[in-house]
């Protein structure tokens, strides 16, 4: 083969000449393979999370703990000075037990007005008592006089009947005499003048008999009139005594009202635990001012005041949570949904979340003015802090929540939940797969197509 026509191209010869130190190999470290494997595992985990994972929609709301049976406010019926507080914070009381004594005394130039009025009322009471005794004495005297007159009439009536009997007998005899004289006159034994005399005697006896019968009728009428007068006298006395009793009852009412103006006692409307005592003895009290709150309980009979606070809380009744939510949140809240609670007094970072269950949702919202007076400011303030875009004039729906536990484990000891504790809660609502949330717009379009 000639030199002009080499067997290999010059480029091949040049390439072979440059590799005299060996072929080029690219090194791949083990870290690159590890990174690729980890990336594949992360991608697989992300795909599995999107496929099988789910997200639960939560409604964040605020609320407060309240007794299941409600909470009563004990208010002052009128203005005055708080003289004495007969109970202590957390004490169990019975229905009708005296809680507070309020002084309502008023002074003028002559002294304390209530005392002066009490003196006048006492004078009126004495006057009514004297009048009652006088009416009863007058009734006894009149009754005695009428009874004596009636007895005299009875005796006179008896004598008159005897006279009538004798007059009738005399009339019969005179009639027989007239008949005999008329027979004798017809036979010529007596004169006509003698017969006429006997007839005149018969007329006199008949006239006397008629007079006696008229007197008997008058006596009967007098007896009836006296008996009616006796009955009327008894009815008049009963009427007078009734009026006096009515006046005495009205006077007793005035006495009680006057005593109440001097000092009044406020009693417990029912058995329960007294809380929220904020006023001190000697402090001025306005009419309608709340002096304490009463948590009703089912405890009956005597109350053992030596029990500890935990036992008192248990006997005072269970607690529940009232959540107040705006309309944009209340639409999907339903009974039976789970609730996760974070108490302000027990930070969830340290004491965790606490479970509960929705039991009821109000059908109509509560205006801010319709919220419980002693809780309204707290509820609205918490709602403004926890709910974005909340308007303090917005109406709120009330959601009642049943607590799974009535106490919290804090540092190994159970701490009882107390009424009035503020809290935040997450109401667990709709739960969906992650891919459903991602593809929700596409699925919505498919359903509408």
UniProtKB/TrEMBL annotation:
Protein name, entry field: HlyD family efflux transporter periplasmic adaptor subunit
The organism of origin for this protein: Undibacterium hunanense
Record keywords: Coiled coil, Membrane, Transmembrane, Transmembrane helix
Signal peptide: none
InterPro entries in alphabetical order: MdtA-like_BSH, MFP
Residues of the Multidrug resistance protein MdtA-like barrel-sandwich hybrid domain: 74-292
Coiled coil: 136-170, 209-236
Transmembrane helix keyword on record: yes
Parts of the chain that traverse the membrane: 30-52
């Amino acid at each position: 083969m000639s030199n002009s026509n080499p067997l290999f191209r010059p480029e091949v010869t040049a390439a072979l000449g440059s590799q005299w130190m060996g072929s080029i190999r690219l090194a791949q470290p083990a870290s690159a393979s590890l990174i690729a494997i980890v990336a594949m595992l992360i991608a697989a985990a992300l795909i599995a999370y999107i496929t099988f994972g789910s997200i639960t929609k939560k409604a964040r709301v605020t609320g407060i703990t309240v007794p299941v049976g409600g909470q009563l406010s004990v208010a002052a019926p009128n203005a005055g000075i708080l003289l004495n507080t007969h109970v202590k914070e957390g004490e169990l009381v019975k229905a009708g037990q005296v809680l507070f004594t309020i002084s309502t005394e008023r002074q003028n130039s002559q002294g304390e007005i209530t005392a002066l009025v009490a003196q006048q009322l006492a004078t009126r009471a004495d006057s009514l008592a004297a009048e009652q005794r006088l009416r009863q004495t007058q009734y006894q005297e009149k009754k005695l006089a009428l009874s004596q007159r009636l007895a005299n009439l009875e005796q006179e009536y008896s004598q008159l009947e005897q006279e009538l009997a004798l007059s009738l007998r005399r009339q019969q005899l005179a009639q027989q005499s007239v008949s005999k004289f008329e027979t004798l006159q017809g036979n010529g034994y007596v004169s006509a003048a003698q017969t006429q005399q006997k007839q005149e005697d018969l007329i006199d006896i008949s006239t006397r008999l008629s007079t006696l019968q008229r007197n008997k009728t008058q006596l009967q009428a007098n007896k009836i009139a006296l008996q009616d007068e006796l009955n009327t006298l008894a009815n008049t006395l009963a009427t007078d005594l009734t009026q006096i009793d009515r006046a005495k009852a009205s006077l007793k009412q005035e006495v009680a009202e006057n005593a109440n103006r001097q000092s009044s006692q406020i009693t417990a409307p029912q058995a329960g635990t007294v809380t929220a005592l904020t006023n001190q003895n000697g402090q001025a009290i306005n009419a309608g001012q709340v002096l304490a709150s009463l948590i009703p309980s089912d405890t009956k009979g005597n109350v053992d005041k030596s029990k500890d606070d935990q036992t008192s809380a248990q006997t005072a009744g269970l607690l529940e949570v009232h959540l107040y939510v705006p309309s944009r949140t209340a639409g999907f809240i339903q009974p039976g949904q789970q609730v996760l609670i974070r108490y302000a007094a027990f930070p969830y970072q340290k004491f965790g979340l606490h479970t509960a269950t929705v039991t009821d949702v109000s059908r109509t919202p509560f205006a801010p003015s319709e919220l419980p007076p002693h809780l309204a400011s707290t509820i609205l303030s918490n709602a403004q802090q926890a709910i974005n875009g909340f308007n303090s004039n917005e109406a709120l729906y009330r959601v009642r929540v049943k607590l799974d536990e009535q106490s919290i484990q804090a540092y190994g000891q159970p701490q009882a939940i107390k009424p009035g504790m503020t809290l935040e809660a997450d109401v667990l609502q709709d739960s969906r797969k992650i891919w459903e949330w991602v593809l929700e717009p596409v699925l919505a379009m498919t359903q509408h197509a």
